[in-house]
């Protein structure tokens, strides 16, 4: 099977524009990127099979049929893209409703860990609290001075 | 045996409820469970003594060769007795140790009983994999028991440390088990022992197993977790860290000893590790001021001693080892229980603060004295009997044995010294320290300790009887002639002399330390520092790595992923793949026209600044793609793509009406250049892949046979549809499940309150909707800019649309169509109704809950598959029925149509859900927002 240049170009352009939009911060743009990527991916899948007449027995002779397997795969992919689009749209709306915009925010937790790492703080540094091995405690809550395996004394 | 384990599990489940009802008295009831295990073992004494093990096997996972194979020989019998009776006594003790209003009591009781069950399972397992399962269960329960006070940092830390150390060792042990099991072709120890590998293979397996053993039994360099685990309540320490869990390693050594005891690595590790542990533990015990820690280090020392004795691998040492296991469980559990009592009545267990307790609580002192005498190895207690046997066994060997013997004597002297320190610390009157004024003793509190102490005495006196019961285990080793027998009195033997020497040395050491009070050298106890450093380094590495890679920015992550795509597959395209020499421009020139439209629209969409413009342009690429599908020979795809694109546009319009017209301005031009560059790079790589992959197909496609199969098996002519509902129906099943999830997600994002979620059903029952009387052709509630004419037209068309969709559904097996396309058509019909008349009109058209439609669809789809199974076929296998109906004539009916009906319902449900959420509910929210002048309040309310 020799490659069809139209498909090659269209797939390339759909991926290029799709990725460009995907890297944006606006969820609506991200979503449009996803749709473009979806179309591109579907075409890419389709090029894996031979082109020809509709794969319907009786309408097309078997040797002239287009390959039905990529078609079946792409068909469900199309509908799933629909579900995904609906979900991302709902996310965009929700984000707009709560924050007044639909932009993807940076993860606050990740940022905090980054700061910790830069300052050399946090777990694994010499934090006196993490090495508190004295286990004994009298019933009234008073700590009993206990010999420690080799740390406190 | 299995039944007993199951009873433990049931009792554990019931324990919290029992404690709620009965308070701490429930522990007495629960004590009956481990006691039953002990009594059961007693009833089997006869067969065990005659050397025939009790065996029980239940098939569990035959594919893995994994059976619930249980086997109780002499050694297991001894362990069951200890686990059962000591467990029962400690539970009875706990009934006094805790208060009824202790909030953690239910949890403690449950975990404790569960632990006893796991320990029971461990010691009777014959299958090594089963043994491993129980082994890890004891680790987990021990973790829960050590950390029974989660509010304390030390408690959590100790629990985590014990868990990490023993689990890592356990994993190594599992690897060793697998090596042995794979070699023997069975995981039953009774079979593996007959078919052991040799050489380096065996050595590696044994060393791995010993890693598990030494970490579990706190042998150097893994000893550090045990003293720290003293953060647990005293009953836990008495049971887990003296009698039961730490003995698991000892048990395994004793179990495997008869088969592998002569292996050099086995002996070397056990003898060296044991001696070092015995010495370091004993030394550290002399430095302690907390009685419980003193005992903990003493336990470490004694575990080392047990490893030395059992690791030696002769008949006589095995007998001594078994007796020592028994002795240690009896006296160490007693002493721990005594410490708990002291702690309770005196309010402290610091030996510098206790004074004169022996005079004021003589009964307690006697109990402790009995157990301590056993620990020090004085006659007529069991500790003496066991130690005599051990000394005697090493007396007649070569040079290596003599070294070990010297170690044993030194260790015994240390034991005597710290035993004296314990007794002196707990009970003696000390000058300069105010006398402790204990609370009155509760007899039931001391009784369990007393029982154990007296048992130690009784076993010592009855040594010949014990010898007869334990002998079958020792006789698993090649017998020396004449074999040693346990007894109190062997005459004036060298062993007795060594015993006396050890006692004298111990007393001397104690007196020396007591008089001079030198600062004892702190020996580098074990791997605690190494452990802390290692854990710290792992934590640190995690922070640094996370900080370096998790930048928190989604575009950054995507960029990294895409960059990898460009570099790796792109690089492979450049260097490693043959490029096709022949290519064609197009199949038909029309493809170029459609392709050009797609390309132009896609580029324009990426540049658009208005949302609506971008959306329309994206739509154009979709329709263009559909056109390409048509030209490719894929009418089903084209149909679906056209419909989906239309539904997508409707959705976008519904949402975009609330969002700002333009995208927010992003001033950073440099980052835009980066995005475009990455986009172009990915596009070029993908185009390259498309070019190469088309040429790379050399094998015959799997789908060559599809048309023929579609007709003969699937009973349909549309190959794509038959592929979806029959040949690859499992895929479709997964995909419709995804659709259901997506629809649920949409609804839960938009409907934010449970009250609002009721409205997803759209059934007119809520207030104003029901007050409107239905009218023919119009909804009667025309608000805002809704056209009556449009409403009437859509109402007239709606049923025709539905009918058409049903036609598509049923003809789809032979013509373009099918469940997906049909469902989309019906959904578009609903969309038109909604657009014309708003949510009232939508509710009129589909007065059902979208969730129900989705559920019904999934039910029908799965039901079709299950029905086929029930009728004896495969899941989702289809059958064709041909019959004659009066009006319709000949009917060719394929059962996979039902599956397609499920697909249809799910797609309809998805679209209905979208219309309800993104349409009707957003209308309502908009009305609320407009109705209230302070939108901030609304937001806050909805955030809650």
Automatic annotation (TrEMBL), chain A:
Coiled coil: none annotated. The keyword ATP-binding does not apply. GO terms for cellular component: plasma membrane. Gene3D superfamilies: 1.10.287.3510. Pfam families: Oxidored_q2. It comes from the Bacteria. InterPro entries: CPA3_antiporter_subunitC, NUOK/Mnh_C1-like. Residues 117-153 are annotated as: Disordered. The lineage of its organism: Bacteria, Bacillati, Actinomycetota, Actinomycetes, Micromonosporales. Residues 139-153 have a biased composition (Basic and acidic residues). This is Multisubunit sodium/proton antiporter, MrpC subunit. It is a multi-pass membrane protein. Keywords: Cell membrane, Membrane, Transmembrane, Transmembrane helix. The chain crosses the membrane at residues 6-23, 30-52, 72-93. Belongs to the CPA3 antiporters (TC 2.A.63) subunit C family.
From TrEMBL, chain B:
GO terms for molecular function: antiporter activity. This is Multisubunit sodium/proton antiporter, MrpA subunit /multisubunit sodium/proton antiporter, MrpB subunit. One of its GO terms (biological process) is monoatomic ion transport. Residues 672-755 form the MrpA C-terminal/MbhE domain. Residues 925-944 are annotated as: Disordered. Residues 125-407 form the NADH:quinone oxidoreductase/Mrp antiporter transmembrane domain. Keywords: Antiport, Cell membrane, Ion transport, Membrane, Transmembrane, Transmembrane helix, Transport. It is found in: Cell membrane; Membrane. It is a multi-pass membrane protein. The keyword Glycosyltransferase does not apply. The keyword Mitochondrion does not apply. It comes from Micromonospora humi. Residues 597-660 form the MrpA C-terminal/MbhD domain. The chain crosses the membrane at residues 74-93, 105-123, 129-146, 158-180, 200-226, 238-259, 265-286, 293-312, 318-342, 363-382, 402-424, 445-466, 486-513, 556-577, 589-605, 612-631, 637-656, 676-694, 732-751, 792-810, 816-836, 848-871, 891-915. Pfam families: MbhD, MbhE, MnhB, Proton_antipo_M, Proton_antipo_N. Residues 63-108 form the NADH-Ubiquinone oxidoreductase (complex I) chain 5 N-terminal domain. Residues 789-912 form the Na+/H+ antiporter MnhB subunit-related protein domain. Its main location: membrane. One of its GO terms (cellular component) is plasma membrane.
């Amino acid at each position: 099977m020799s490659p069809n240049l139209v498909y090659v170009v269209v797939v390339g352009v759909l991926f290029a524009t799709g990725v460009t939009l995907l890297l944006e911060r606006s969820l609506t743009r991200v979503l449009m990127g996803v749709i473009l990527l979806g179309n591109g991916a579907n075409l890419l899948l389709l090029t894996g099979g031979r082109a020809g007449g509709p794969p319907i027995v009786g309408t097309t002779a078997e040797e002239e049929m287009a390959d039905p397997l990529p078609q079946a795969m792409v068909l469900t992919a199309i509908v799933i893209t629909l579900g995904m689009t609906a979900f991302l749209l709902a996310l965009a709306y929700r984000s707009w409703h709560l924050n007044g915009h639909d932009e993807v925010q940076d993860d606050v937790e990740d940022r905090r860990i980054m700061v910790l790492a830069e300052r050399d703080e946090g777990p694994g540094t010499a934090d006196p609290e993490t090495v508190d091995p004295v286990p004994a405690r009298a019933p009234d809550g008073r700590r009993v001075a206990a010999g420690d395996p080799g740390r406190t004394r | 045996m299995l039944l007993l384990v199951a009873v433990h599990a049931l009792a554990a489940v019931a324990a919290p409820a029992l404690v709620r009802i009965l308070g701490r008295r429930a522990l007495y009831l629960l004590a009956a469970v481990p006691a039953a295990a002990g009594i059961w073992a007693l009833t089997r004494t006869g067969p065990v003594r005659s050397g025939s093990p009790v065996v029980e096997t239940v098939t569990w996972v035959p594919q893995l060769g994994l059976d619930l194979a249980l086997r109780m020989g002499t050694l297991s019998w001894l362990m069951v007795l200890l686990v059962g009776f000591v467990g029962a006594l400690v539970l009875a003790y706990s009934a006094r140790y805790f208060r009824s209003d202790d909030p953690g009591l239910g949890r403690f009781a449950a975990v404790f009983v569960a632990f006893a069950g796991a320990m029971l399972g461990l010691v009777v397992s014959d299958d090594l994999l089963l043994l491993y399962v129980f082994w890890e269960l004891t680790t987990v329960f021990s973790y829960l028991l050590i950390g029974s006070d989660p509010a304390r940092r030390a408690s959590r830390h100790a629990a985590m440390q014990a868990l990490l150390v023993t689990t890592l060792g356990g994993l190594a042990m599992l690897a060793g088990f697998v090596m042995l099991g794979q070699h023997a072709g069975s995981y039953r120890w009774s079979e593996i022992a007959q078919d052991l590998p040799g050489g380096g293979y065996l050595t590696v397996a044994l060393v791995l197993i010993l890693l598990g053993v030494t970490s579990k039994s706190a042998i150097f360099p893994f000893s550090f977790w045990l003293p720290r685990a003293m953060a647990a309540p005293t009953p836990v320490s008495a049971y887990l860290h003296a009698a039961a869990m730490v003995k698991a390693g000892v048990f395994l050594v004793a179990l495997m000893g008869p088969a592998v005891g002569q292996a050099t690595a086995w002996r070397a590790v056990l003898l060296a590790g044991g001696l070092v542990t015995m010495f370091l533990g004993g030394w550290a015990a002399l430095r302690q001021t907390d009685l419980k820690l003193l005992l903990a280090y003493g336990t470490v020392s004694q575990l080392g001693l047990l490893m030395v004795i059992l690791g030696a691998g002769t008949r006589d040492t095995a007998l001594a080892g078994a007796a020592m296991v028994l002795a240690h469980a009896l006296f160490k559990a007693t002493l721990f229980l005594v410490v708990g009592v002291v702690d309770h009545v005196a309010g402290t267990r610091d030996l510098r603060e206790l004074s004169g307790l022996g005079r004021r609580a003589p009964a307690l002192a006697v109990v402790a004295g009995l157990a301590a005498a056993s620990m020090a190895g004085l006659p007529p207690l069991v500790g003496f009997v066991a130690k005599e046997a051990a000394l005697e066994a090493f007396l007649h060997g070569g040079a290596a044995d003599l070294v070990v013997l010297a170690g044993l004597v030194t260790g015994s002297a240390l034991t005597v010294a710290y035993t004296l320190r314990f007794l002196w610390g707990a009970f003696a009157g000390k000058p300069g320290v105010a006398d402790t004024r204990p609370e009155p003793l509760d007899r039931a509190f001391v009784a369990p300790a007393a029982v154990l102490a007296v048992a130690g005495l009784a076993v010592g006196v009855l040594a010949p009887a014990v010898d007869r019961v334990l002998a079958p285990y020792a006789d698993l080793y090649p017998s020396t002639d004449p074999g040693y027998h346990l007894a109190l009195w062997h005459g004036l033997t060298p062993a007795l002399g060594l015993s006396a020497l050890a006692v004298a040395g111990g007393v001397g050491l104690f007196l020396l330390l007591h008089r001079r009070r030198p600062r004892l050298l702190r020996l580098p106890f074990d791997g605690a520092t190494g452990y802390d450093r290692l854990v710290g380094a792992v934590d640190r590495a995690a922070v640094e790595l996370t900080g370096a890679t998790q930048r928190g920015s989604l575009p950054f992550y995507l960029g990294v992923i895409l960059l990898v795509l460009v570099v790796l597959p792109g690089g492979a395209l450049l260097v490693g793949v043959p490029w096709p020499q022949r290519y064609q421009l197009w199949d038909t020139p029309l493809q170029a026209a459609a392709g050009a439209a797609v390309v132009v629209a896609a580029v324009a969409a990426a540049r658009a600044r208005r949302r609506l413009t971008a959306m329309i342009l994206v739509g154009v690429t979709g329709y263009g793609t559909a056109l390409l599908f048509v030209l490719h020979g894929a009418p089903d795809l084209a149909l679906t793509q056209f419909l989906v694109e239309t539904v997508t546009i409707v959705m976008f319009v519904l949402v975009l009406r609330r969002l700002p017209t333009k995208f927010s301005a992003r001033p950073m031009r440099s980052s835009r250049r980066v995005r475009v560059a990455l986009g172009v790079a990915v596009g070029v790589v993908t185009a390259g892949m498309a070019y190469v992959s088309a040429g790379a197909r050399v094998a015959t496609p799997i789908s060559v046979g599809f048309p023929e199969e579609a007709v003969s098996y699937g009973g349909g002519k549309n190959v794509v549809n038959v592929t979806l509902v029959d040949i690859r129906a499992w895929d479709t099943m997964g995909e419709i499940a995804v659709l259901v999830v997506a629809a649920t997600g949409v609804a839960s994002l938009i409907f934010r309150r449970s009250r609002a979620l009721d409205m997803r059903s759209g059934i007119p029952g809520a207030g104003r909707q029901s007050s409107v009387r239905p009218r023919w052709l119009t909804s009667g509630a025309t608000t805002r800019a809704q056209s009556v004419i449009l409403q009437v037209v859509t109402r007239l068309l709606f049923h025709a649309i539905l009918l058409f969709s049903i036609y598509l559904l049923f003809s789809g097996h032979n013509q373009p169509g099918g469940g997906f396309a049909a469902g989309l058509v019906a959904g578009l019909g609903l969309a038109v109704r909604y657009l014309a008349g708003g949510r009232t009109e939508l509710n009129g058209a589909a007065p059902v809950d979208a969730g129900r439609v989705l559920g019904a669809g999934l039910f029908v789809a799965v039901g079709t598959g299950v029905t086929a199974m029930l009728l004896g076929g495969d899941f989702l296998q289809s059958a064709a029925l041909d019959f004659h109906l009066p009006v319709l004539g000949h009917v060719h009916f394929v059962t996979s149509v039902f599956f397609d009906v499920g697909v249809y319902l799910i797609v309809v449900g998805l679209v209905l859900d979208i219309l309800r959420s993104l349409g009707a509910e957003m209308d309502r929210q908009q009305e609320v927002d407009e109705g209230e002048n302070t939108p901030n309040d609304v937001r806050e309310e909805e955030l809650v």
